[in-house]
Design a protein that fits this description.
The protein has 14 helices and twelve strands. The strands form three sheets. The protein has a six-stranded mixed β-sheet with strand order 2-4-1-5-6-7, sandwiched between helices. Helix 1 runs parallel beside helix 8 and helix 4 runs antiparallel to helix 5. The longest helix has about 30 residues. The two termini are about 25 Å apart.
């Protein structure tokens, strides 16, 4: 699988409730800090109507959706970068994910204690962001000290490394995440990647609202959207309580519930797709009567690379990819009809797979 989204936020903002709904897992979601200490991990199917239609069209015996992994990471608190609230352990968990879903409380409820005593989404957001920045500053400063010592020899490599590390340091000192630093060459890209900084990870803000605000949002969500726009980040609004209720219903009951709430689909579907987009992922399909399956790849993956997701032999012995665009497949109704109508294309090693491609790989090992 290889794609992990970590769910983070202050204690009692609804992280575990949202994780429960995503994975239908019966984990604790108590009204006190640090209910979650060891991270809970859940594998979630990515909803995709295209897979459903393809499987129905060819009367497949086995339908396999693509999946994402979600990690429920314990609530961070102010001082986490210095070890407060088991901070070092929690920050270590964040290092292991590919993207961060930052849950921000945008609902008022006197029965659920706020760790800071009052509701202020922007303050909450800043607490988490600053702890990640402070942790990254410590990492960068250690590496910078080493690079400066090595640069005393006059070696241009270490002089350049120190200069780039100083640029990252200045960005972090300014209270901005390291993902805003733009590497100018491959050496800088590799250095930034090697640092494994927490704030280089892409972030999606999740506004957790009450049932009454799930459709139109509220002033707290508006504040969050304004801040996210400054960071060029996105916001998904969901009501964690509603989503947990939905996760316990069958499909027909879900549709009735959604209609009553004035919602077209579960908020978690939007959250999953937003996470998918955040990681720069796309889906291609293999279609057949025995099995119709969705496969996850990153945007820009070549045909051999996509074939390698199925099996390394497919990539090593790649000959060609026979490709039908999803829309053409649905219009034609079958692979044979698509071939007859000339919309099945034969693509070579340079072909970049597109979202929704239906592919038959030819290979020889």
């Amino acid at each position: 699988m290889g794609f992990r989204c970590g769910i983070v936020g202050l204690p009692n903002v609804g992280k575990s409730t949202i994780f429960n709904a995503l994975t239908a897992a019966a984990i604790d979601a108590e009204n006190y800090p640090f209910c979650t200490i060891e991270p809970n991990v859940g594998v979630v199917a990515v909803p995709d109507e295209r897979l459903d239609r393809l499987a129905e069209l060819v009367h497949t015996k086995n339908k396999v959706p693509t999946q994402m992994e979600f990690v429920d990471i314990a609530g961070l608190v102010k001082g986490a970068s210095q070890g407060e609230g088991l901070g070092n352990q929690f920050l270590g968990h964040i290092r292991q994910v590919d993207a961060v879903l930052h849950v921000v409380r945008c609902f008022e409820d006197d029965n659920i204690v706020h760790v800071d005593g009052s509701l202020d989404p922007l303050r909450d957001l800043e607490v988490i962001t600053m702890e990640l920045i402070l942790a990254d500053l410590e990492t960068v400063e250690k590496r910078l000290l080493k690079a400066r010592n090595q640069a005393k020899s006059g070696d241009k490599k270490f002089i350049a490394e120190a200069a780039f590390l100083e640029k990252i340091q200045q960005t972090l000192d300014g209270g901005k995440p390291a993902r805003l630093v733009d590497p100018e060459n491959e050496v800088q890209e590799l250095l930034l990647r090697d640092l494994c900084l927490l704030t280089t990870k892409p972030v999606l803000y999740v506004a957790n609202v009450s049932e009454d605000d799930v459709v139109d949002g509220n002033s707290f969500v508006d504040q969050l959207r304004e801040q996210a726009a400054i960071e060029d980040a996105s916001v998904v609004t969901i009501a964690g309580g509603i989503e947990q209720e939905l996760s316990l219903l069958d499909q027909e009951e879900q549709q009735e519930f959604l209609a009553d709430m004035g919602m077209e689909e579960p908020g978690l579907n939007r959250l999953i797709h937003a996470g998918y987009e955040l990681l720069g992922l796309i889906t291609y399909f293999t279609v057949g009567e025995k099995e119709t399956k969705a496969w996850t790849i990153t945007k820009g993956t070549s045909a051999p690379g996509a074939a390698g997701k199925i099996h390394s032999d497919f990539e090593r012995g790649f000959i060609r990819a026979e490709v039908i665009a999803y829309g053409d497949y649905i219009t034609c109704g079958s692979e044979a009809a698509a071939r007859d109508k000339g919309v099945m294309r034969s693509e070579g090693k340079e072909y970049i797979v597109k979202d929704g491609d239906c592919i038959l790989f030819r290979f020889n090992v």
